[in-house]
Specification:
Strand content: 35-45%
Helix content: 10-25%
Distance between the termini: 44 Å
Radius of gyration: 35 Å
Number of strands: 51
Length: about 700
């Protein structure tokens, strides 16, 4: 090692160490690398090699084709280094024995004494060398302790990662948001034509096999909710539609014999087995209940939000996690409660993103769940003292992945992989079949201006409101993310469009926007998400929100006056007839189709079955509606009060941004959005890093 001005190399090394550890240099990466390289080159007798090219490539990380004539980085960093050295010696290094500098015009460092005789520097250097040795020994011991602690923490809190995905099904069914497995097989509900049927597929992939449930009912949908831990009983909710706001009847189905049995008289939204299969946790309305496996000895343990679902027992049976939906914001979040009852608390109190569903891995180490359209996981709190684990995203598209289910050995995740795309079809009554309409347009909520020149639509799945001419020209986007949109309707004069919109974390509201765009404005103060025009455009009928608070009101647009619609408590989703004589709507308690006669100021029940998406014909003499989740299209004639099935949709998968959708085309025929995408079950192989 070389000396400079009689200063020993170890004293220079000690000074370099102090400089680089100081606050002036601790966060100055380039300046630190530059100084360290220059000093080391000098002490190794290579100061003649301290040229601009060498510094740029070896100290500052430039590539071998670095050209100092084009790239001035070395000169610029040298000036910054000189400035930092001056700052250091004017502050924390003011009393240092040795001073290092980089004179202008060169990159070779110089070393000077700060008023200390040269013969004392050697002694000081040796003392500092001993101190440095002791310091390094202590530092090494500390680093070993930290490394051991870090290794333990990493083992306890390693982030999982999906390494591979394999498609297991290749069928033409929509899939439910619940999967179950007994190891060799995966069970799910397969949907087509608005009806769900139990199905299974080998966990290694293969042919989808439908599972008949004749004792439940040939026309009833069977929706899977889980499997017992002994793999003998499937938990199923069933019914043509909700019998009430509390949910559906609950059944068990033997996986071996397919024998079905009601679970007491329970009517639920969702349910799940306890780890010992002796109890069932179930959701009814906004409440969580626990009962014995036969439905007896039921007792409430919690309530939260407006609607609950996905009750999941922890593997030790001590906790239950569930999803809570708030109607006002339509936001879903995951909550937890002790199986013994008590206070509930959010699983992720500081996370604002929507979360829903979820399952524990059988070993209890992880909880996997959905946030929006991706799968996330969180590790259960480890015994090692640490902060609460943070959720980790496992999937990043391009598929939407839903309903994650860990395999019995916790090595794989089964999930529904989804591509969302739609194709508009209209029903041709003469040919008694559906034919394409507006090819290439994937959208729902298609609505036409009264003059037949313009149309609005909500893109699927982007959920943006657009306006265009019927030939697709003069397209203009009216809304954009993050606002979500549904039920857009032209005003009778063609100047405005009313729609339902929601911003993240806010309630659904009714808005008006100009046909040529602009800023959406609320129709009226308050939560009025459902709005429909009167034929003359001077009034609207508004729905006040979500069950059980629904009520309809007339709004006079000129004055802003609100008047209640008589007898409309518990009624929602109104649609005004084009002749101004009627309003059709749904009764919340059972989805029955209701008709309000404005002349008589009275309601009558058209049918006990649902009439989703009612669309009036232009003459106001009849309307079309959708049965349930898309089982059939119905037609109601006002004069005869006949409510008849027009066409079955059992061979179609229909979709929409929020549910199966129905509209009416310019020629007055019913219009649907066929599901042209796919939903298949995948196996995701994952591992802990």
């Amino acid at each position: 090692m070389m000396q400079s001005n009689g200063i020993p190399a170890d004293a220079i090394e000690a000074e370099l160490f102090k400089i680089l550890a100081s606050p002036v240099f601790s966060k100055a990466g380039r300046a630190s690398r530059f100084l360290r390289f220059a000093v080391r080159q000098y002490l190794e007798g290579k100061s003649s090699e301290l040229k601009e090219y060498v510094v740029g490539v070896e100290a500052l990380g430039r590539k071998p084709d670095f050209d100092p004539r084009v790239d001035p980085i070395v000169r610029a960093e040298a000036q910054r280094l000189r400035t930092r050295l001056n700052e250091y010696y004017a502050s924390v290094g003011k009393h240092d024995t040795v001073r290092i500098s980089i004179p202008k015009g060169t990159y070779v460092p110089t070393f000077d004494l700060n008023g200390v005789p040269a013969h004392e520097v050697a002694t000081l250097g040796r003392v500092r060398w001993l101190r440095r040795c002791l310091l390094w020994l202590a530092l090494a011991a500390g680093l070993m302790i930290v490394a051991v602690a870090f290794s333990v923490q990493r083992l306890l809190h390693a982030s999982p990662v999906v390494t591979r995905s394999v498609r297991l099904t290749n069928d033409d069914f929509s899939k439910s948001s619940e999967l179950a497995t007994d190891g060799p097989r995966i069970y799910f509900s397969a949907w087509k034509g608005g009806r769900g049927v139990l199905a299974q597929v080998p966990s290694a992939g293969g042919q989808t096999e439908l599972i008949p449930t004749p004792s439940i009912g040939l026309d009833a949908s069977a929706c899977l909710r889980g499997i017992s831990h002994d793999s003998q009983r499937l938990l199923v909710v069933t019914g043509k539609q909700r019998s009430s706001l509390t949910g559906y009847t609950l059944w068990t189905v033997r996986s071996s014999t397919l024998a079905s049995r009601r679970v007491g008289n329970l009517v639920v939204n969702d349910a799940g087995w306890s780890p010992d299969d002796r109890q069932i946790a179930y959701c009814t309305g906004n409440q969580i209940w626990i009962g014995d496996a036969d439905g007896s000895k039921a007792h409430k343990i919690a309530e939260q939000g407006d609607l609950t679902g996905y009750p999941r027992w922890s593997p030790d049976g001590r906790r239950i996690r569930f999803t809570s939906l708030v109607w006002d914001t339509y936001q879903q979040t995951i909550w937890e409660v002790s199986a013994a009852g008590g206070p509930v608390h959010p699983l992720f109190p500081s996370w604002n993103a929507e979360q829903w569903g979820g399952q524990w891995t059988p070993d209890g180490l992880y909880f996997v769940f959905n946030s929006e359209s991706d799968i996330w996981t969180v590790r259960e709190r480890a015994p090692w003292p640490s902060k609460a684990p943070k959720p980790v995203q496992l999937t990043f598209g391009p598929l939407n992945f839903l309903a994650p289910l860990p395999s019995v050995d916790s090595r794989r995740l089964y999930a529904v992989g989804e591509i969302r795309r739609g194709e508009l079809l209209r029903y041709d009554a003469k040919r008694t079949e559906f034919v394409p309409l507006f090819p290439g347009l994937s959208a729902d909520d298609v609505n036409f201006s009264r003059d037949g020149e313009w149309m609005t639509y909500v893109t699927y799945p982007q959920n943006e409101l657009w306006r265009s001419r019927l030939d697709g020209s003069s397209r203009q986007q009216l809304t954009s993310a993050p606002m979500r949109v549904t039920t857009a309707r032209w005003s009778p004069d063609g100047r405005q469009i009313a729609f339902e919109g929601r911003m993240p974390g806010q309630t659904w509201k009714g808005y008006l926007i100009g046909a040529d765009g602009g800023t959406p404005k609320e129709i009226a103060a308050g939560p009025w998400p459902h709005a429909t025009w009167s034929p003359d455009g001077t009034q609207m009928v508004l729905g006040s929100g979500h069950a059980p608070l629904n009520k309809l009101f007339f709004l006079t647009l000129g004055t802003g006056k609100l008047s209640p619609v008589p007898g409309s408590d518990g009624i929602s989703n109104p649609t005004w007839s084009p002749d101004g004589r009627y309003v059709v709507a749904a009764r919340d308690v059972d989805d029955a189709c209701m008709l309000f006669d404005l002349d008589k100021q009275a309601w009558s029940e058209i049918a006990p079955t649902s009439c989703s998406w009612p669309y009036w014909t232009r003459d106001g003499r009849s309307f079309f509606s959708l049965e349930g989740k898309g089982a059939a299209i119905w037609h109601f004639e006002v004069k005869t009060h006949k409510f008849e099935r027009l066409v079955s949709l059992k061979d179609y998968r229909i979709t929409g941004n929020y549910s199966a959708w129905l509209g009416i085309s310019p020629d007055g025929s019913p219009m649907i959005l066929k599901d042209a995408g796919s939903q298949e079950i995948y196996a995701l192989e994952w591992q802990v890093r």
